Amino acid sequence: MNDPVRAWHRLADGSVLLDGFHALKHAVRFQARVPVAVTTDRRAALALADELAPDVRETLDALLAEVPEETLKALVPRPHPTAVAALAVRPSRAANLEALARTPAARRSSSSTTRAILATPGR
């Protein structure tokens, strides 16, 4: 396994902080790219996954690296009570716009706008 602290420092500036178990759980569910995740207690974090998110437990098991409490505090000055923190790759603006264009609401809005323009007198 790569050194999670080294990876954290390398990725921190261009990433989104996932602060706590629930943020990490949702990021994994929505298929965010999460290159590094740390906790001070893997067993406790995986027990939470067993209870609250069995669908992502296997992914979290592979992803979570246990670090000392001092290390977590150095990475995240105010650690979440679940003692879990991770970094997700920040999508580019273009990727965000592309994803938004694929959402059902965007398609409805686009269709409504098109219909409104076509129905405008003089068009």
From TrEMBL:
It comes from the Bacteria. Residues 101-123 are annotated as: Disordered. It comes from Streptomyces avermitilis. This is rRNA methyltransferase.
